[in-house]
Design the sequence.
């Protein structure tokens, strides 16, 4: 199955609530690579690559774990670049 990339913006009260740590923990459960970081406007951006099914499960688990904090999730689906070796928190 072909790899793809999701560029995800989580909107809501998503900073200061261990959101990035949760995303990193979820990434360990799936065959995904990429990163997560806080954005200036108060959102959290996550760029992640893997098979679409894995990415969908990864996003779903984050949404379930942080459902009280997420108001909206915006996902842009792109072709994978293969540039990531693991999953990191960016600052």
Sequence:
């Amino acid at each position: 199955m072909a790899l793809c990339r999701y560029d995800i913006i989580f909107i809501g009260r998503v900073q200061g609530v261990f959101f990035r740590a949760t995303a990193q923990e979820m990434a360990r459960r799936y065959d995904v690579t990429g990163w997560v970081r806080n954005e200036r406007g108060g959102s959290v951006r996550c760029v992640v690559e893997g098979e679409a099914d894995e990415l969908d499960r990864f996003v779903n688990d984050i949404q379930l774990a942080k459902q009280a904090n997420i108001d909206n999730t915006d996902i842009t689906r792109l072709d994978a670049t293969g540039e990531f070796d693991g999953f990191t928190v960016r600052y």
In short: The two ends are 32 Å apart (CA to CA).
